[in-house]
Amino acid sequence: MSQTPTEAAARRALLLNLSPWLFFVGLIILWELVCRVFSLPNYVLPAPTAIFSAFFDVEFSRWMMHLWATLRVALMGFALSIVVSIPLAIAMMRSEFLSRTLYPLLVVIQSTPVVAVAPLIIVMMGSDDPSRVLITCLLTFFPLVVSTATGINETPEELIELSRSLDAPTRRETWQIRIPYAIPHIFSGLKVAITLAIIGAVVAEFVAAEEGLGYFIQFSTSFFKIPQAFAGLFFLAGVSLLLFKSVQWTQQIFFAWSLPKKK
Amino acid sequence: MEHKSERAFVRMVGVGHRYDPTPGSPMAVQNIDLDINRHEFVAVVGPSGCGKSTLLRMVSGLLVPSEGEVSVFGKKVNGPRDDVGIVFQKPTLLPWLSVRKNVLFPLKHKFGRYGAQDEKRANELLAMAGLEAFADKMPDELSGGMQQRVGIVRALLLNPDILLMDEPFSALDAMTREQIGFDLLKIWDEQPKTVLFITHSISEAVLLADRVLVMSKRPGSVLDLIDINLPRPRSTKTINDPRFSELTDRIRKHIYEPDAH
Amino acid sequence: MLKKASSVLAMVIAMSASGMAAAADEVTYQLDWLPGGDKAPVYTGIQQGFFAAEDLEVSIASGRGSTDAITKIATGQADIGSADIGALMAARAQDTVPVSAVYMIFNQGPHAFFSLSDSGINNFADIAGKKVATSPFTSSNAFLPLVLQANDMPADAVTLTKSDPGALGPMLVTGNTDAIIAWVTNIALFKQQAASAGKDINVIRWSDAGLSLYSSAVVASDKFLSERPDVAKRFMRAYDKSVRFTHENPEKAAADLHTMVPEVDAAVATAQIGDSMPLTFNEISEADGLGTMTPERIATTWKWVAEANELSVDSLDPETIVNRDFMPAAE
User: Fold this and answer.
1) Which UniProt keywords apply (chain B) (predicted)?
2) pTM score, whole prediction
């Protein structure tokens, strides 16, 4: 074993980077084997190859149409919840009255199953994008409010004293100290929220939609096209992962300082 | 006590404070009478929780005493004042700003902007602290000692008359700590300030200060006010001076045997 | 000045009114479930131009069950659609819902037991003491005790387990259950699933076992019927034509559906049409006329529905939910 330490380290790093993929591929192979060895029918558990071919049986343009429908709602809901949550968290941090009044309400909203509320929203607001966006927003805004509020409250007391000793306006205390300090927390919240946004869009599609990946999965199931439903599910999971990664990349590119230090 | 002049720069008369405003509730500090001269370096030592930080906050105006009065150059302190620079125990730099921008932060924060002149001053201050090579680095690329030096430079930016330091070196290792202490004295020499320096370390207090205020345990009051008549400039040699150990022993007695005198 | 402004306004209104008259009338049709062969008529009506011929522009919204469809029609999100008449009766008995039935699509209930051909369960009496799986929210569940009692069996004659609709077929094929409760509109899908395991399926229709009732109907909001009666009449005329066309040309209707909803397989849709048309065209429609709702059968339906939903028979005069003014004239 005449490896230099750097070579060994490089190999280790490579393995660490590849391991999720290797694990995933291994899992797929195992899955395929189980399906073949026990000759499981598609309606019990479709084999990966069956799912794969079901994926290509659906026209690309249809996939794009369903993808766009889901992505549109998820991203609009996500954006709306950012626009609502962050100012709300700041307002709640500024005013004890607001935080005492609103917190219980937020907890009630959060603990109400969105699946139960979704049909009511559709009845009240119609079965178009706005209601689906609202359903998505309901699911995503709570983790954002909580993480932003936590971040804002974790600003070191010394910096607040520094700000006060400079006799700076509160506005600048909020924008130059508290909000930047909350950024690592806000990003944790955003990572949770983006995956919830996809779930929210799918829940909304289950209740009322004519297109979208959630609708597509429901539709496939109703026709007992289980491999096709699985294909939709995997596609959805892929989209969800990509969105999650995009949030991570955004943090890495624009807010590198907010990432936990390595070593 | 030749330091007691008519024109004391910072004057505390009968100062006391309780955090719970109910009358009869325990005091954090009480009966503090202290005059500090312009450009004098005063260190404060005392057991944990004796109200050293409370004292410091009352000078900065972040805290208004419930008894007595604090005045700076004859004017009563009744709110945050911008002629003080504060250095905290932790560097508390803003991790999203470069070292230079951290130094400029007080201006940006107070006025919303700064000019080329200000940047020049920041660069000069950084150079004085031996940090010019690190001006464009991010805080987390610096060692703890360097970060704390940035904290001191930041406190000097607005050229305050008073520098308030709240256990500024207590998070550093012993060697860094000694070095940064001498660095501080060098800066103080170049840019004379009235310094109120809080510390847990008796030797640090004696090594740096003109006078050391020894406080009793809670409620904090003045146990002793000791002139440190060691020659300046101070250096590692100062520690070998027999008066150094005399002075530290005297303070140590107050702290460990408070009833002995 | 004001006069001038108001005359301009009047002109604009007049212009837009004339513009509207020129365009086709818009109608939103609400399905009670996702698109499928059993919903083919409205799709084929659009593709074959039957609605356009009546100067109508029809858009279709999918639904998630009869209650969902009725709610959406009642709240004005859709004008007209399909829903189970039993669900409408139950809703009207408990609340004022401004929706009425105008046309009968299925004059028989679609409820049935499905069993494997080799299971020995071949007619209704064989079900006694067997394990039966059903989905949790199907309206069939409420009728089960009634149809069992009508066949001289106790209400708990079968061991009932509830399971996701998608799991019912696999459960039946793998022998996890002796029979399942499903709708005859899906016979082809279940047969296809069973065939992939080399099995075949028996269908035991509850309509043959005494459960005599109407089910899926065209229902419309009262607002639509009272404010745009002419549009409603034209719609029903075209719809009736579409139903007949679907019956006579199942492949074409399935192809039309596939054109509008590519996810629906034309072959599967053809089979679904084949399964569901007997609920529309049968001896009842022969005797009473296509789409007709007779007072007698409406009353019988209500009796079953009231009992199944544990409602008093007096809580609703079932005739009040029916509006026969929009029945297309028999050709």
Assistant:
1) ATP-binding, Nucleotide-binding, Transport
2) 0.82
